Amino acid sequence: MRFVLLLILPLMLWAQPEFFGYFESEADVMKVGGTNYSFGYNKLRLDVEARPNDNILIGANVNIQKYWGKTTWNLLDFLPEDIWRPFFIPDPSSSSSYYVPPQITLSDTLLLDNVYMRVSFPLLDITLGRQQISPGVGYAWNPTDIFNTKTLMDPSYEQAGVPAIRLAIPFDSRVSFCVVVQPADDQEKTTRQYWLKVGDGGFDFEITLAEYKWQPAYYALFGEQYFEIRNLLGGSLVGEMFGWGVWAEYTHYSLDYGWEDLTPEAVFYPRMASFKEFVLGVDHTFDNSIYILSEYFYNGYGTANKDDLNFYDYMLSLGGETHSLMQNYGFLYIMHPTFDFVSLSALTVANFDDNSGTIAPQLDWNIFENTNISLQGNFSWGDKDTEFGL
């Protein structure tokens, strides 16, 4: 909090700051398998921005989030039993040691989420600090985004700030080049991503390159120091055809392994040394005001056969460290402004590989000015050992 004050006070001296933000309260009731979860949170976000002059923008926001209800979850409740049983149920005939079931804890936070300064020169913009970086054109999935994790039940929810240095060079109104760097103590582990964006006619195109360290959180949970250096080559396009919005996003990954200290029998090895991901999407608003958005996503790192899934695949997916559990997915969103202050919508996510999915209808009511109430349900289908059927 002292750091926040040190930031805000100079802003008040340099320029007239603008304060804004919101309060959000959420309550959830969820049943997974035979376990019920009731939980929620209250959240306050306060933003401040100031312009000492025409060339400098300084901004920050503080998030205060307080959870209630069930805040410690057993991760095994979210996995099929035949996936986790070999790790956590000892075989009486074996002397092997077994892991303690991992827990997920929802912790209260007081977070300085974004704090940044943007300096604009005639031919260059520099942004320093913790800032918003959101690559890609997809809605539910962004294969070219190495910085953020999305939830499929609310893909457009705000993302956390990324500590980085960003350089942007605008060549003209529709051509620009951008570099993002996240320095690390080891130069080999420094994250770098580059974009070249070009607009032509009704379409915008982008080519991107990236190199970054990828170390899943669960490796540390089980005492492993394994990591990969991932190299990404990708691109995207977005535009309009025949009154429909269309977009596509593609990446190809190649991996360099940092597993020198692992034993040969370790099961932490990645499934493949290179793979691709892509998303295809369309959206349209009809004359009757119905809006639809649909995407297809392919993840080459996943498997098309659920019998080939293992414990680590689920851990990567639940942790948001892979974009999906399996390979082939669909996403559909439908919305209609049914009444003056009420809109009805629904989203559906389907796993085409294990024939499971979920549908989530939602009602949004703008009850007062700047005050909104949302009610969402969620119903899934599929066999009990599938991704959504569980």
What can you tell me about this protein's structure?
This protein is mainly beta and 390 residues long. It contains 4 helices and 20 strands. It has an 18-stranded antiparallel β-sheet that branches. The longest helix is centred in the N-terminal third of the chain and has 13 residues, at 2-14. The chain starts with a helix and ends in a 9-residue tail after the last strand.
Q: Please state the overall shape, judged from the principal axes of the Cα atoms.
A: globular
Low-confidence stretches: 260-267
Summarize model confidence as the mean pLDDT: 87
Rg measurement, Å: 23 Å
* Secondary structure tally: strands: 20
Q: What percent of residues adopt helix (DSSP H or I)? A: under 10%
Strand portion: over 45%
Query: Strand-and-helix sequence, N→C?
Result: HEEEEHEEEEEEEHEEEEHEEEEE
Structural class: mainly beta
Distance between the termini: 42 Å
Q: In DSSP terms, counting alpha (H) and pi (I) runs of 4 or more, how many helices? A: 4
Q: Give a short account of the largest sheet.
A: 18 strands, antiparallel
Quick rundown:
Helix content is 9%, strand content 52%. The protein is built from 4 helices and 20 strands.
Task: Describe the structure using short key phrases.
two-stranded antiparallel ribbon, 4 helices, mainly beta, 18-stranded antiparallel sheet, 390 residues
Task: Please render the helix and strand layout as text.
Blueprint: H1 2-14, E1 18-32, E2 35-53, E3 56-69, E4 72-74, H2 81-88, E5 103-105, E6 109-120, E7 125-131, E8 162-172, E9 175-182, E10 191-200, E11 203-214, H3 217-221, E12 228-241, E13 244-257, E14 274-285, E15 291-299, H4 311-318, E16 328-336, E17 342-351, E18 356-368, E19 371-376, E20 379-381
Antiparallel strand pairs: 1-2, 2-3, 3-6, 4-5, 6-7, 7-8, 8-9, 9-10, 10-11, 11-12, 12-13, 13-14, 14-15, 15-16, 16-17, 17-18, 18-19, 18-20
